[in-house]
TrEMBL record:
Region forming the signal peptide: 1-24
Subcellular compartments: Endoplasmic reticulum
GO biological process assignments: proteolysis
The encoding gene: CTSW
The protein's name: Cathepsin W
GO annotations of cellular component type: endoplasmic reticulum
Function summary: May have a specific function in the mechanism or regulation of T-cell cytolytic activity.
Any one Pfam family match given in the protein's UniProt record, by short name: Inhibitor_I29
Location, primary (coarse class): endoplasmic reticulum
Domain Cathepsin propeptide inhibitor stretches: 42-99
Endoplasmic reticulum as UniProt keyword: yes
Domain of life: Eukaryota
InterPro entries in UniProt: Papain-like_cys_pep_sf (IPR038765), Pept_asp_AS (IPR025661), Pept_his_AS (IPR025660), Peptidase_C1A (IPR013128), Peptidase_C1A_C (IPR000668), Peptidase_C1A_papain-like (IPR039417), Prot_inhib_I29 (IPR013201)
Length: 374
């Protein structure tokens, strides 16, 4: 861990001195030798994230992609209206298309089930607290998962939702099987993608979920036989609901009931390092959602100073406190803020209000035996 932290700090220091070199190399589009500093940064990236390439041509291609991504990260940081920092991440050697294919939803033909949206806090008469973070209550939020090359963010978000709600309602720590959702899904897509509502319907069809320990995550792209009947269940749901597309409603439900799954546009997450992302509809289209995560809390940042653009000109970033959402991702703890990230709250950042879905957990009902009188 100490080595990783050291490499991360060294990467940050080297990247800080790169702007002119990167922009110059990209502007000239010179296929010849890259700046020495860039190659040093790329070498550290390879060491930190265990990257190797099959031949010199592939190395050169990935180095060029890496340089372009760093330049793009600098642009994102200049454009973002929040406090987010963008730079080197585990995905810095991937093109935007490769990143989308590996980590976004692949099966886009599915449609959300026709269902009414849950009434909100305005009708309940309850106020929304100023902050909420379910991570602070022990045993509610399971450890950060790593989906690797399996398009299963939807299954991992669903599992996190059920685990959290089960812990809140029954004061019992559970970790449910993501692999069961992949192997036994009603659409049979496994690692090729899916949606949260597919996962909830699978849980209902299978009458619960087995534990992660009994039915562990394998995550490869090969289809596996469904083993749902082989293992005992550890958590059940009675149904699932979609909340209103209103951030106050979502915050109220999150604070009073527990974590919620949301599906967002993940475009900015490839280069994200930390801070609050405050995107515009132009930089992160809220209609094009392609990545499911777990909403675990919200809060408000302290006052932040405005950034300075290249050349010393002040950027019009806010200096006042900034409301944000806290979201749990499924890309490992090395990414983002130890596996989490924050989005601005109040602007439908990256489409966070499009599909706010959550299960309602409950133990299975035991039917009273009935006998006909003779």
């Amino acid at each position: 861990m100490a080595v990783i932290v050291y490499l991360s700090c060294l990467l940050a220091l080297l990247v800080a001195g790169l702007p002119q070199g990167i922009k110059g190399s990209l502007r000239n589009q010179d296929p010849g030798p890259q700046p020495l500093e860039l190659k040093q940064v790329f070498t550290l990236f390879q060491i930190q994230y265990n990257r190797s390439y099959s031949n010199p041509e592939e190395y050169a291609r990935r180095l060029d992609i890496f340089a372009r991504n760093l330049a793009h990260a600098q642009q994102l940081e200049a454009e973002d209206l929040g406090t987010a920092k963008f730079g080197v991440t585990p995905f810095s050697d991937l093109t935007e298309e490769e990143f989308g294919q590996l980590y976004g939803h692949q099966r886009m033909a599915g449609e959300a089930p026709r269902m009414g949206r849950k009434v909100g806090s305005e009708e309940s008469g309850e106020s929304v607290p100023s902050s909420c973070d379910w991570r602070r209550l022990k045993g509610i939020i399971s450890p950060i998962r790593q989906q690797e090359n399996c398009n299963c963010c939807w299954a991992m978000a669903t599992a996190g939702n059920i685990e959290a709600l089960w812990g809140i309602k029954y004061n019992q720590v559970v970790q449910v099987s993501v692999q069961e959702l992949l192997d036994c899904g009603r659409c049979g897509d496994g690692c090729r993608g899916g949606f949260v509502w597919d996962a909830f319907i699978t849980v209902l069809n299978n009458s619960g979920l087995a534990s992660e320990r009994d039915y562990p995550f394998r995550g490869d792209v090969k289809p596996h036989k469904c083993l749902a009947k082989k293992y005992d269940k550890v958590a059940w749901i009675q149904d699932f609901i979609m909340l209103q597309d209103n951030e106050k409603t979502i915050a109220w439900y999150l604070a009073t009931e527990g974590p919620i799954t949301v599906t967002i546009n993940m475009k900015l997450l490839q280069q994200y390092q930390n801070g609050v992302i405050k995107a515009t509809s132009a930089t992160c289209d809220p209609r094009l959602v392609d990545h499911s995560v777990l909403l675990v809390g919200f809060g408000t940042s302290k006052s932040v100073a405005g950034r300075r653009a290249e050349g010393g000109a002040s950027q019009p970033h806010p200096r006042h406190p900034m409301p944000y959402w806290i979201l749990k991702n499924s890309w490992g703890a090395e990414w983002g803020e130890e596996g989490y990230f924050r989005l601005h709250r109040g602007s439908n950042a990256c489409g966070i209000t499009k599909y706010p879905l959550t299960a309602r957990v409950d133990r299975p009902l035991r039917k009273r035996p009935v006998s006909c009188p003779p």
